[in-house]
Amino acid sequence: MAILVIAEHAGGALASATLNTVTAAAQVGGDIHVLVAGHGVGTVAEVAASIDGVSRVLVADAGAYAHQLPENIAPLIASLVIDQTVIYTHVLAPATANGKNILPRVAAVLDVDQISEIISVQSRDTFKRPIYAGNAIATVQSNAAIKVITVRATGFCAAGVGLPGDRAVIDPVAPPHDAGISRFVSEQLATSDRPELTAAKIVVSGGRGMQNGDNFKHLYSLADTLGAGVGASRAAVDAGFVPNDMQVGQTGKIVAPQLYIAVGISGAIQHLAGMKDSKVIVAINKDEEAPIFQVADYGLVADLFEAVPELQAAL
Amino acid sequence: MKVLVAVKRVVDFNVKVRVKADHSGIDLANVKMAMNPFCEIAVEEAVRLKEQGIASEVVVVSVGPGAAQEQLRTALALGADRAVLVETVDELNALAVAKLLKAVADKEQPQLLILGKQAIDSDNNQTGQMLAALGGYAQGTFASKVSVEGGQLLVTREVDGGLQTVVLNLPAVVTTDLRLNEPRYASLPNIMKAKKKPLDTTTPEALSVSTASSNTVVKVEAPASRSAGIKVKSVAELVEKLKNEAKVI
Questions:
Q1: Is B43 strand, coil or helix?
Q2: Per-residue pLDDT at A201
Q3: Which residue of A174, A216, A275, B225 sits 20 to 30 Å from the alpha carbon of A134, by its own alpha carbon?
Q4: Is the ipTM of this complex over 0.85?
């Protein structure tokens, strides 16, 4: 009996959300196997093998798995479960864009309902997950023989990496599945030296109050002083100030840093859903009635164009 | 090319929901209901494809209570040609909904199936992907741009690091993200016209689909609430608090 964790990786590096997912698997209890599917993923597999608590790494390295096309990877995951060389009781993936794209496809092939974005493990078959943009928490029990689950990274701490003498076995899996119905064309990925939003210890986010994309330079500059990641509200993304990968909220990225600084963000419930588990929240807004102040530990009613440079200078 | 669009009736996105005192679910009594915002984007995209002469017919489907006819009428007023309601009083899980949509798709034989990426009530983000798996279709989830080129579908997707573009064989499933389009408002004449458009009703039994689920909601509770902190008077006071009280910088 084992748990299969689907590794998230990009550009030859294991994504940190994988480590939080391994922690969720450890809380369920059982042997933990990690599947690394992709093309040219030898290094990722090596890193995955050094995650604490992982006993086995399965590597599916083929062109068909490049770019994480769900039409090819979902049948691979399902076949590992159906094959029963190992009896898997749970399949867990991080609730990243890839995890959300691939895992429901696996669940449907296995004819079970998925449990999305769990934030806590109550027992082997019972989990908690937010619904209604986090305004309610549902406890969900599954009686499926195989439980298919995506894991919200902010609900679990990251598993350690690299305990000496604790390396997992690495096994290749074959053969590749190429459904031949979809093809990768191109990608436009944001390149940034700043910490990745979901893993950053400090996040600075801007909203409609930033007025335009150019004004975000004030936030980038503050973020660089703090070593922070930069996010945005839906309003700022919809207005075209910044790209979509910066959106924090119910349907964007979920963050829970040590410090979240919301600048010119009113605080719609859909935005709060993405950041209200942050340890400390600071809000800077000139409207003292803005709902963001109802969740902020420290609120500053001020013009952001004066307060942000002043804050940066004071650090 | 026929386009099938799925829509869901949900609590309006402006409503702050309350958990029932017995923790059995959300109190929906006298709460304003509406079409899920991502489904509105799905309807809009299909209607635009029809206006461009790419889609020949737009069929809108909902799985839900009889009252979901309201949302289907809204979709018809926005430009869909006809509607199908799969009526059920039970609150179904995503797999059951996907199976019902697959059964409708088997009858309708669409080339393109457009769904919202997630419903703002259950926040599952599953149905489109499951429907694609059941039908053996390619999927373009979290779409911010869709075009038809040479009998294939070009989909730009919002992913964690930015944007990804894929080309899909038809038939294919697309799930909509926020930036795909800005849905129009229905005009009064179109709302009147929509009342005369065909709306058929069927049931899971008539479609021979089992709606049993492996998941049970045991309890629904309110989240740990976060109370407002203090207002600081100046940037200097803020920095002092962050350093000495919160100790986060």
A1: helix
A2: 96
A3: A216
A4: yes
